[in-house]
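Researcher: Quick test of sequence recovery. Tokens follow.
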């Protein structure tokens, strides 16, 4: 039914054992990527920009995943500027396409995003407005 069900002491399960379930003992921590069925959830990735040229901030295998959703938090603490936005992306094996939406900032856009496919990788790229910008990125990918 989707509820957490106590199994024993501090172990919990999510879901029905007929269809499979995840068992947690105490807290569950994922240090890199958690994959459930055809969806992959990536832990946060931090990218520190060294200049204002276009840079790859995240990439994944284009043969494994067709679409992606990013939550991107950008900070330029030197200039007290902050931004958060969502980015959706899809790829067809030769081209990569993204759109950024839900952009919230305190006065100034901190970067522009694009994507490419090269060497079997979908790459999210960003040209920051300042070389003191840091991006924290969460990614959810869906299988081909």
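Model:
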């Amino acid at each position: 039914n989707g509820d957490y069900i106590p199994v024993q002491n501090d172990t919990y399960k999510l879901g029905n054992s007929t269809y499979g379930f995840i068992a947690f003992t105490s807290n569950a921590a994922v240090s890199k990527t958690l994959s459930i069925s055809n969806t992959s959830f990536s832990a946060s990735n931090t990218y520190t920009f060294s200049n204002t040229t276009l840079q790859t901030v995240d990439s994944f295998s284009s043969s494994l995943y067709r679409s992606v959703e990013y939550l991107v938090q950008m900070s330029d603490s030197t200039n007290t500027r902050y931004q958060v936005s969502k980015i959706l992306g899809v790829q067809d094996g030769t081209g990569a396409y993204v759109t950024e939406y839900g952009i919230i900032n305190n006065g100034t856009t901190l970067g522009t995003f694009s994507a490419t496919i090269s060497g079997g990788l979908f790459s999210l790229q960003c040209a920051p407005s300042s070389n003191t910008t840091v991006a924290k990125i969460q990614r959810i990918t869906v299988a081909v």
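The radius of gyration is 18 Å.
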